[in-house]
Each structure stands twice: as C-alpha cells, then as structure tokens.
Design goal:
alpha/beta; Quinone Oxidoreductase, Chain A, domain 1; Rossmann fold; 2 domains; seven-stranded mixed β-sheet; 23% helix; globular
C-alpha cells in the first residue's frame, strides 16, 4: 500500500479538502502512475454532490488523468517506466462478456468498474485522479502520444472520447452536416473532432456569446437557440446532432432540425428526468440515441487521431486549492473550456 495526497469530498455537497488515501500495492499486471494533470469534468460535480445517485464518501473525483509510469508489475508488457499514459472513466470490467471481448468495455454486461465512486474487484472503493498517484491494470491504461502535452491531453480521456466515439459511430465526415449543442467542455472537443473528420459543423448554443470561439475551434456556422427563428431556418438540416448539454431541452425542437434518417445523440446526462414527445420522431424516420465514453481500443484511437491533427483541449490550468471555486465556475459556464488541476499542487 502507498499513501498519497489527494483532494476528496468528505460528504455529499461538502467542499473538497486535502487528505490522504491508500493506493494498493502494484500487482503483477498493474502500473503505478505519477499523475501530472487531472481534468475537472461536470460528471465530477454531479457525483460529488449526489446529483445522479447516492455516492460513496469520502470521494476523490477525477477521470481525466494524464501522467507518467513510475513502476510496473512483473507481468506488464504494454508499458515501461517513463511512459506517458492516461486513464479515463473506467479501470476494469468483467473482460469476458461479448462487449468486453469486442473492445466495448464501457458497455460491459456486468458494468465497468468506474475510476471513482465505485467498488473494485478487491472490494475497495475506487478513488480518482485528484491525487498524486494511481494504480491501474495495464489493460485499462492508454498511451499519450508524444504530439500531445499531458495537460491538454488529460481532458481527452473523457471529453475527447465522449465526443469522438459517437461522431465515428454515426459516420461524421465529408458530406455530413453535424450540429453540436452546447460549447462547453464536451462541446468544444466535439467541434474540433467533427471538423477534423471533415464534417460541416454547426454550433447550437443558447446565445452568440461564444461565437468567435466556436468559429476558431472549427465550426462553420453558429446559431443561438434562444432565437426561435433558428429552429425555422435550420429545420430538416442535419444528419447528426450531438447534444453535450446536461440539462433538459426542448427535444421536439431539436429533433425537427434533423434530415430524414438523421440522429440526435445525447452525451450530456441531466440529473432530472426529461420528457420526449414521440410524435417528434415520426415522419422523417428520425432517431434519438445516446453514447457512453468509448472502449479502451477506441480511446487509444482517439488519442492518436488528436495527436495527428493537433487537437488538445482548451484548458485553464489551476492549483488544487482552486478546485471548489472551479466547481462553481463550471456550474456558471465560466470556463473556456476545461479546468485542469496541476497535481503537483496537491
């Protein structure tokens, strides 16, 4: 066991505070990672504040982890000391169901073991990346290509793969019109990746406040959803709409923007139930779906793609003492576009 410094929520809705946690000894197939940077995802706030379900406390959030391997178990073949690596939203799965065998560990039939706010196979609570070190089985670690600095790579382990996976699955690319709803931590990566894939990209945001940013990130068009005329002008336009907003929307209005056989994919997860009017799906064979992160092979593919195209997250680097302020700023949409903790400050 190794004692490491971390920032944890001692109870639901309580401010995070500095503490220490125990990391397991490095097993045969484990790697010990010195965490250099950890992104702050809106999911961290949902879970630290019991927004989705009752959590396990004390809770160390963080599933956007980038660092350097400092020790490997005797059976490890994929990594060596000094390698630059990342860990995303999960650290294990059953490994034997059809989904796991297909590299879709995020859809493990038994449920993946999440990086934090879960229980590992050893019966111990998992703790996340707001810490100095983490021990992870090599099969759930990915390599960060040299073309990406670790600070801008960290958010890719959630925000990057959460948008890359549906864009690839629904064939975003040349000749396709893609809309991204919301220009935040997820949305800004959705715009970058959709543009790099060759799609014609439109941002649909509440206001035009971030229009200049959206166009710089790769959007071809930018519309305000607070303007009713937007829904008239864009009716029947898009092949794919990627909704990154974690709040209820007028889904009927957004579904009306799809072409025949178009799909609206949700990657934002509201805390409250949402209402869908089924009639809004009829007439043009529209679909409404969702997507959850990505498997380990696809996460590596995403990192390689981002390195090839020079795509890192737009970040604001903060010290650990600023985590609680950062949470409030995320809720106020006051970040462009991802907070990343310098874990040397923990």
């Amino acid at each position: 066991m190794t004692t490491v410094a971390a920032y944890a929520a001692p109870a639901a809705k309580a401010p995070l505070e500095r503490t220490t946690i125990e990391r397991r000894a490095v097993g045969e197939f484990d790697v010990l990672i010195d965490i250099r940077f950890a992104g702050i995802c809106h999911s961290d706030i949902h879970q630290a504040r019991d927004g989705w379900r009752p959590g396990t406390f004390p809770m160390v959030p963080g599933h956007e982890i980038a660092g350097v391997v400092s020790e490997v178990g005797p059976g490890v073949t994929r990594f060596a000391v000094g390698d630059r690596v990342g860990v995303g939203c999960m650290v294990d799965s059953c490994r034997k169901c059809d989904n796991c065998e297909a590299g879709l560990q995020q859809y493990c039939v038994e449920g993946p073991t999440w990086t934090y706010n879960a229980v590992g196979k050893d019966g111990e609570a998992t703790q996340g990346g707001y810490s100095q070190k983490i021990v992870v089985d090599e099969n759930y670690v990915v390599r960060v290509p040299e073309g990406l600095s670790l600070d801008v790579a960290a958010p890719l382990l959630c925000a990057g793969i959460t948008t890359y996976s549906p864009l690839k699955h629904w064939n975003a690319g040349p000749g396709k019109k893609v809309a991204v709803v919301g220009l935040g931590g997820l949305g800004h990566m959705g715009v970058k990746i959709a543009h790099a894939l060759g799609a014609e990209v439109t941002v649909l945001s509440q206001s035009l406040r971030k229009k200049d940013d959206g166009l710089k990130l790769g959007a071809d068009h930018y519309y305000a959803t607070s303007d009713p005329q937007t829904f008239e002008d864009l009716k029947g336009t898009f092949d794919l709409i990627l909704n990154t907003v974690s709040a209820p929307l007028d889904f009927g209005g957004f579904l009306s923007l799809l072409r025949t056989d178009g799909t609206l994919v949700n990657v934002g997860l509201p805390e409250e139930p949402v209402r869908i009017v089924l009639q809004s799906l009829f007439g043009d064979r529209r679909s409404m779906s969702s997507s959850g992160i990505g498997g380990i092979p696809e996460t590596q593919e995403m990192l390689d793609f981002c390195a090839e195209h020079g795509l890192g997250a737009e970040i604001e680097l903060i010290s650990a003492s600023e985590i609680n302020d950062a949470y409030e700023r995320v809720l106020a949409s006051d970040v462009r576009y991802r907070f990343v903790i310098d874990t040397a400050t923990i």
